[in-house]
Amino acid sequence: MRVDIISIFPEYFAPLDVSLIGKARERGILDVRLHQLRDWTYDVHRTVDDTPYGGGPGMVMKPEPWGEAIDEVLAADPAATPRIIVPTPSGTPFTQRLAMEYAEEPWLLFTPARYEGIDSRVMAEYGARLRVDEVSIGDYVLAGGEAAVLVMVEAIGRLLPGVLGNACSVADDSFAPGSMENLLEGPVYTKPPRWRGHEVPEVLLSGHHGKVARWRRDEALRRTAKNRPELLATLDLQNLDKHDRRLLEEIGFPVGRENMAD
Q: Residue 182: its pLDDT value, please?
């Protein structure tokens, strides 16, 4: 996969040289190319922003440098077209499902903005001929989109074939389609079996795969109910058995008896 990132702070992306993503780049699985937006400015101050039309606080990123930067990136491979991803708090929520969709793309172009964002004509221009997605990583505002790009590149990059040592890890992720519906992962443990007076749950030491699976599902339901109760409303009732129903009732989330699995 090729990933291009245009930013006024390309040095922000040094973390992409380490850990799993860094190894993926070394092995040629992920090709990350950084571009300094100011390279497409021509005044002495290398200006990329100006005051907004209509008034108001803050500054808006100018369309000219963005247009020239994107054009030059696109011209590097005229036979292909990237999917452009614009990080913004007003965008579509970034989810595991969307990360999996992006992981199927051969080429992604990220355009992280600063200030009050990029002049809207830029995305109108490229949206007329390319796939342009405005994407949000959460309901909060950052100083710029670079941190959001780091989040998305890591979430997408780890899904690429050959990046994770154990491919099954992806299937077990929280929010992964097919991984116990839309439930959070439960608690995890490793050696030693006792640490500072805390014991590993006995069922995990039993070697009984059926009981371990049941415990993990129960804990996933409990954690989801505690931390993300709104996700329980998305559960497929036909995938809930009698034990699930009893557990949900015990923790304060009763479910009707209709459409229940046995």
A: 82
